[in-house]
Every structure is written in structure tokens, then in C-alpha cells.
Design brief:
The protein is α/β, with parallel strands linked by helices. It is built from nine helices and 15 strands. The chain is globular.
């Protein structure tokens, strides 16, 4: 799948194209990977713009996406046929890629390769862990609020925060997603942003305020959280993403209530997960233990085949899925 035209506002299917290519020989240092599963992440939308938050994709270029796959041919001694690998495999069925751009997925008891685009994925579980723990410094007993909680990152944050002893409130759209947060992921409470004033619902669920807000959404949801920070000080706001703003990055709506940070002696920090690579080993150890102990799971919503990749991207922004949205070519 390639970028045919730049979206004007929300993407449409005609902004994308698909074509067949013949793969040349596997040159020295390269591997040929059969793509198994691609992770559908909100940052992909920003690469379609002329100047986005992330690296812009050229017109005619393959749409970027992280994924896992198996090596079917290798010109690198470090990779053999059948090895599982993870990296920027992009929206295609086969990826010819330098081995230096890949991470070999080493077999681990009780942890499947699929987890590398789920609970152990850099844009999913590792992002959740870094934002919650390395940046947000979650503590046992904290009241933690998570927006976009029924999505991939949010689902991970809910479970990791519970495992650390926090009281967790998730925000999602619709009764079914709220039930998923409480019944399947173990959230203590859920707020349906489609069913009334978010700030009022939050005030009722956390009358003493929240200690940590993990934000994936931005916009009015961020303002509602700022208005409900714990007044006694020390509250933290972690900016992971702002999916409500990605369709119009040239006119982003900032928080109106940012002065609550000063009034309540609180802080707000953004982060890029790759800047915390030094803690990935620690994160993977903790997350893998949660997987083996049955204390963390990330349900998948699967779209297939590869020509449905644009449909999945549009689905990501329309809220039609729950859990980890993936594409199987």
C-alpha cells in the first residue's frame, strides 16, 4: 500500500493505492521477511501529512507501520530462515529490509512472537510502560485516569497500573467499551465520554482528584482531566498522544485549563518512547512476567488482507474497534 495523495482532513480510501512489485535479489546485509501482522497505530496518520509530528512519508512511498514476520531469505549471518523478527515492515506482504533495522524476536517460554506488536510492542506495551512508569512515576494507591483506554496503548496502561497497585479509571466511547475496561481489563471504573459530561462523571468517581492522567486523546478530554487534578499537589499529566487532533495538525487545539497545573502544583510531560530505550530491558522483564502470570492480555481486532490496510486506518479514528487493531496481510 502506498500514499497516493495527501489527505485533506480525514483520509479517504482514494488517498491510497496498491501495486505489485518484483523483489530483487537479497543483497548482503538484507533479509526478506514474510509479514505476519502489522500494528495499526495512530502515529501512522501523521506521516501522511506534508509536515507531521513524525517523519513524513513521500507520495508514492509504502505506508509505514511496525510489524512482525518470519525470515524467508537472508544474506546476513545473524538471521536464518524461519526466524521471527520485528521492525518497520510497513504496509506490504513481503519486506526486503536491512537486518540492522530489525530486532530478532528470541523465543521465550510463555510469550509468543505476537506479543511484539502487542504487550511488548514499542508502539503499544512499551509505550504504555514508559509513559506510566518511567515518565508518570505511578505509585501504589494513585488514582490513575486513562483516556483512549479501550485502544491498544490504553488497554496496556490500565493493566500495568492495576498491577502496580493503582486505582484505575478508564475513558472510552460507548457502553460496550466501558464494560470491556471493567470486566476484561480490571479497571475500577469507566467513563463513557459519549454519555454526558466527562468532567462531572470524573468528579463523582474521583472526588479527591486524580494523581496521574495518561492522555492518548487531547482536546476537551484533557481539559476535563486538568480540572480534576488532586488539589493538594503532586499530580502528573503524561502526554502520550492526541488522536483527537491528528486530522488537523496545522490547527491543534491546546488545553484551555492549563493553569490548573500551576494552581494545583502539578506537572505535565510529553515523551517519545525511543528516548527511554535504556529501560526497555526492565520493561520487557516486567511485562513478560505479567503475561506468563496471566495478569496482562491485549485482545486483537484483526483486519485482513493487505488491501484493507486503509480501511483499518480509518477504523482507528472512527472508534470501531476495541483493543489492538492489527492487519494480517
Amino acid at each position: 500500500m502506498f500514499i497516493r495523495t495527501r489527505p485533506d482532513g480525514a483520509p479517504v480510501l482514494t488517498d491510497f493505492g496498491i501495486e505489485d512489485e518484483t523483489i530483487a535479489d537479497v543483497a548482503s546485509g538484507q533479509v526478506l521477511v514474510k509479514v505476519d501482522t502489522l500494528s495499526m497505530d495512530a502515529w501512522i496518520r501523521t506521516t501522511l501529512n506534508d509536515a507531521g509530528m513524525h517523519e513524513t512519508g513521500d507520495l508514492g512511498s509504502t505506508i509505514r507501520a511496525f510489524g512482525i514476520g518470519q525470515v524467508i531469505a537472508s544474506s546476513d549471518a545473524g538471521y536464518a530462515e524461519g526466524d521471527w523478527t520485528y521492525g518497520m515492515l510497513s504496509a506490504q506482504t513481503l519486506a526486503l529490509i536491512p537486518s540492522s533495522q530489525l530486532t530478532k524476536v528470541e523465543p521465550e517460554p510463555g510469550v509468543s512472537p505476537q506479543e511484539y506488536i502487542g504487550l511488548l510492542g514499542i508502539t503499544t506495551g512499551l509505550t504504555a510502560w514508559v509513559g506510566l512508569i518511567a515518565v508518570g512515576e505511578v505509585q501504589a494507591g494513585d488514582v490513575v485516569l486513562v483516556s483512549g483506554a479501550a485502544g491498544a496503548v490504553g488497554s496496556c496502561v490500565v493493566q500495568f497500573a492495576k498491577a502496580r497497585g493503582a486505582h484505575v479509571i478508564g475513558i472510552a466511547g460507548g457502553a460496550a467499551k466501558c464494560a470491556y475496561l471493567v470486566d476484561q481489563l480490571g479497571a475500577d471504573a469507566a467513563i463513557d465520554y459519549k454519555a454526558g459530561d466527562v468532567g462531572a462523571q470524573l468528579g463523582a468517581l474521583a472526588p479527591d482528584g486524580i494523581d496521574l492522567f495518561f492522555d492518548n486523546v487531547g482536546g476537551s478530554i484533557l481539559d476535563a482531566a486538568l480540572d480534576n487534578l488532586r488539589p493538594s499537589g503532586g499530580a502528573r499529566v503524561v502526554i502520550c498522544g492526541a488522536i483527537s487532533q491528528y486530522q488537523h495538525l496545522d490547527d491543534v487545539a491546546g488545553p484551555k485549563l492549563y493553569l490548573r497545573l500551576a494552581e494545583r502544583n502539578a506537572s505535565m510531560r510529553g515523551f517519545v518512547v525511543s528516548h527511554h530505550a535504556a529501560r526497555f530491558t526492565e520493561a520487557k522483564k516486567e511485562i513478560s512476567a505479567l503475561i506468563r502470570d496471566g495478569k496482562a492480555r491485549l485482545p486483537e481486532y484483526v483486519v485482513s488482507p493487505i488491501d484493507k490496510f486503509p480501511d483499518a486506518l480509518l477504523m482507528l479514528f472512527s472508534g470501531q474497534h476495541t483493543g489492538n487493531l492489527v492487519v494480517k496481510p
